[in-house]
Amino acid sequence: MEEKVENVSRLFSKNIVKQLIHRIQEDDLPGLAAQLAYYFLLSLFPLLIFLFTLLPYLPVPQDNILGAIGQYAPEEAMALIEKNLDSVMAKRNGGLLSIGIIGTIWSASNGINALVRAFNKAYNVKESRSLIVARGTAILLTFGMITVFIVALALPVFGKAIGLFLFTQLGLGEEFHAIWAAIRWAVSALILFGIFTVLYWVAPNVKMKCKSAVPGAIFATLGWTVVSLLFSFYVNNFGNYSATYGSIGAFIILMIWLFLSGLIIILGGEVNAFYAEKAKENC
């Protein structure tokens, strides 16, 4: 137990902070994060359109999809997303599902490819896998992330129903709602941690054990949650982008949030690369 506590404390040591600052400058992380924000934007709407088109076949209410994003995204960004989704879904047709699949997989796999390049840069390795293997890996990761996202949306539906039934039988129906709010945050964090762990383990062109991806996954899960909530709080209470930028204010907020998300994810890869480098030095 003491060893685990020591390992976690080392994750946030002064040495790694200095190294991360150095790597941010050396690997041009802001530039890579800007690229990711662009790809995230291109894949966000196809993914949401695809999920909304699947709703008739899934036991997931529409509010759950937007609610999963709304937990972290600023209000103005969410308003922009909902407005565009409503516009597209109002004109949907029978071919939208197949188009959504193609658009989602292609756009999202481009985003994964951008992450692969960023992670390879963190490890100072070149992409030696063939184009087909690299793209296939990106597509498989995309399928995996979509599946996990759908499961994550469905779990609260069944979990809340089962939990409410059990607590009601025990005469604790009212207490359940408070407990459920905490459980949802814990489940969201675990799902994020799982996604980041697999991403950091599979995406880089480096042979590594799954446990080697854990430090970066912890950093990304905590970092993305905290940064998203803080940015959302700032925009909702202090930042008036609409007054400064007019009608494009919401779009700018969305892009900044996607940029910050990309930066945190890349930093998680840098954390893993740092520990991999240290492990080699100690061998």
UniProtKB/TrEMBL annotation:
<keyword id="KW-0812">Transmembrane</keyword>
<feature type="transmembrane region" description="Helical">
    <location>
        <begin position="95"/>
        <end position="116"/>
    </location>
</feature>
<dbReference type="Pfam" id="PF03631">
    <property type="entry name" value="Virul_fac_BrkB"/>
</dbReference>
<feature type="transmembrane region" description="Helical">
    <location>
        <begin position="36"/>
        <end position="58"/>
    </location>
</feature>
<feature type="transmembrane region" description="Helical">
    <location>
        <begin position="247"/>
        <end position="268"/>
    </location>
</feature>
<keyword id="KW-1133">Transmembrane helix</keyword>
<dbReference type="InterPro" id="IPR017039">
    <property type="entry name" value="Virul_fac_BrkB"/>
</dbReference>
<dbReference type="GO" id="GO:0005886">
    <property type="term" value="C:plasma membrane"/>
</dbReference>
<feature type="transmembrane region" description="Helical">
    <location>
        <begin position="214"/>
        <end position="235"/>
    </location>
</feature>
<feature type="transmembrane region" description="Helical">
    <location>
        <begin position="178"/>
        <end position="202"/>
    </location>
</feature>
<keyword id="KW-0472">Membrane</keyword>
<keyword id="KW-1003">Cell membrane</keyword>
<feature type="transmembrane region" description="Helical">
    <location>
        <begin position="137"/>
        <end position="158"/>
    </location>
</feature>
<protein>
    <submittedName>
        <fullName>YihY/virulence factor BrkB family protein</fullName>
    </submittedName>
</protein>
